[in-house]
Design a protein that fits this description.
Layout (H helix, E strand, L loop, with lengths): L1 H17 L3 E8 L4 E7 L1 H11 L3 H8 L3 E5 L2 E11 L2 E9 L5 H25 L5 H24 L4 H15 L3 H13 L13 H13 L3
Antiparallel strand pairs: 1-2, 1-5, 3-4, 4-5
């Protein structure tokens, strides 16, 4: 799996190069406690958050949402990606300034590539994900992307803005982001593709998605 690891590192290096003032990029799993790949200061800072069980990385994993925060003098953006039984794979980006819209856009574009590549590497290595977990991870991400597309169609906005709408809705209702996304697809399309082995979203997620969808069509 040497090539797979090099691919992930190159993607992370590319992201770091795209962001002015980027001091590091990390990829970790919490609560499983594995630091998968790091660039720059992320090696020490990701490990410290995993071991201390606190920080933006932990909050992003626990709440399954994008989180911004500070560690020392650095600003952190933590984005949960693929889901397995060990927890979400979280991409962390360390900046010497508060994240700007262009920073968040670059992270939004690269994060799916990094998270999916990491999931494939770990699956092939037989270390983290089983085949059924891999399928669920791909399905969850697809529903989130579908939900973002629906929001962008209903209210012209960027992919980042659409994701933020989902994040705010999930936070307000205290429900998982992936459940809100699945419910929104159900509300708008009436069905989920290839959902035979998926747990349906809870009623609160469906109610949240219904209110969000109705608000966009007032």
């Amino acid at each position: 799996m040497k090539f797979g690891g090099e691919l992930i590192t190159r993607l992370m290096d590319h992201l770091c190069e795209q962001l002015d003032g980027c001091r590091g990029v990390g990829l970790s799993v919490w609560p499983d406690g594995a630091v998968l790949r790091t660039v720059g200061v992320a090696k020490e800072l990701d490990q410290a958050q995993v071991e201390g069980q606190e920080g933006p990385l932990v909050d992003a994993s626990r709440d399954e949402r994008q989180v911004t925060g500070k560690i020392g003098d650095l600003d952190v953006v933590a984005v949960p990606g693929s889901w397995g039984d060990g927890g979400p794979v979280v991409l962390t980006v360390y900046l010497d300034h508060p994240p700007r819209p262009e920073d968040l856009k670059a992270i939004e574009e690269v994060e799916p590539l990094v998270a999916t590549a990491a999931a494939v590497v770990e699956f092939c290595a037989g270390e983290v994900l089983r085949a059924d977990q891999m399928v669920r991870m791909v399905q969850h991400r697809r529903y989130i992307e579908q939900a973002k597309g629906l929001l962008m169609g209903a209210r012209p906005c960027t992919p980042g803005d659409a994701f933020e709408l989902l994040v705010r809705a999930s936070q307000h209702a205290n429900v998982k982001l992936r459940d809100v996304a699945m419910a929104l697809v159900l509300v708008a399309a009436g069905e989920l593709e290839d959902a035979d082995n998926m747990t349906p979203p809870p009623k609160i997620a469906y109610d949240t998605a219904q209110r969000l969808w109705e608000a966009l069509h007032v």
